[in-house]
Amino acid sequence: KQEVTQIPAALSVPEGENLVLNCSFTDSAIYNLQWFRQDPGKGLTSLLLIQSSQREQTSGRLNASLDKSSGRSTLYIAASQPGDSATYLCAVGLSQGGSEKLVFGKGTKLTVNP
Amino acid sequence: GAVVSQHPSRVICKSGTSVKIECRSLDFQATTMFWYRQFPKQSLMLMATSNEGSKATYEQGVEKDKFLINHASLTLSTLTVTSAHPEDSSFYICSASIAGTSGIWSPETQYFGPGTRLLVL
């Protein structure tokens, strides 16, 4: 059974810092891996999607890496801003019967202090 | 593009009543819709996967007679929580996968709704 773990559970940093969020998964047979952002009481916003054949994806100040063989992914946020404060979720995609099943971690709650 | 809406955003009901939550894809056709549940400080857990015109596939441990899912069209899926109890109080989120490919959209990508907060008293 696929399990996704995110470390740390919570992180508080001053504005401007670069930071790394970690995600690990137990089964390397994944279809893809996504990083999402969730604001309190809200739905999910997809940040980056890495296909299983890729090693990284970049969008603006965000960079996500994927090491499938070791079951790890990292989300790097450069020059953090207070607006980055949210919970960041990692999810691995499993191909299942023609559709995709996502298995989520519990998330890392990020607070960026002005 | 790829907007998914949910209605209602928040609902409070009495124990024993049934509650219906709607999930709509506003600007695309979704062959597959997913329903997730999220308890406080926990991860999203997939409840069921529904394909338009066919019965939903439920995850292990999810009671299909309690959580009724209908996916009658390519733009609408509903989740009905029957005989709701306080332990059903949770945040319910739907997502939709796009049919076919169009530009940067991928059939593997799920687009998430804003969620529905259910409180059962």
Summary of the model, kept short:
Chain A is mainly β. Chain A contains no helices and eleven strands.
Could you characterize what this model shows?
The complex is a heterodimer of chains A (114) and B (121). Chain A is mainly beta. Chain A is 0% helix and 61% strand. Chain A is built from no helices and 11 strands. In chain A, a hairpin with a 4-residue loop joins β7 (62-67) and β8. Chain A starts with a strand and ends with a strand. The mean pLDDT of chain A is 93. Chain B is globular, with a radius of gyration of 14 Å. In chain B, the strands form 2 sheets. In chain B, strands 2, 4, 5, 6, 9, 10 and 11 form a 7-stranded mixed beta sheet that branches. A 4-stranded antiparallel beta sheet of chain B has the order 1-3-8-7, with no helix packed on it. Chain B contains no helices and 11 strands. Mean pLDDT of chain B is 88; it is low at 101-105. By secondary structure, chain B is mainly β. Chain A binds chain B through residues 4, 31-32, 36, 41-46, 49, 89, 91, 93, 95, 97, 99-107, and chain B through 4, 6, 32, 34, 41-46, 49, 51, 57, 91, 93, 95, 97, 106, 108-115, 117.
Entry keywords:
heterodimer, A: 114 residues, mainly beta, five-stranded antiparallel beta sheet, 0% helix, globular, B: 121 residues, four-stranded antiparallel beta sheet, 11 strands, 52% strand
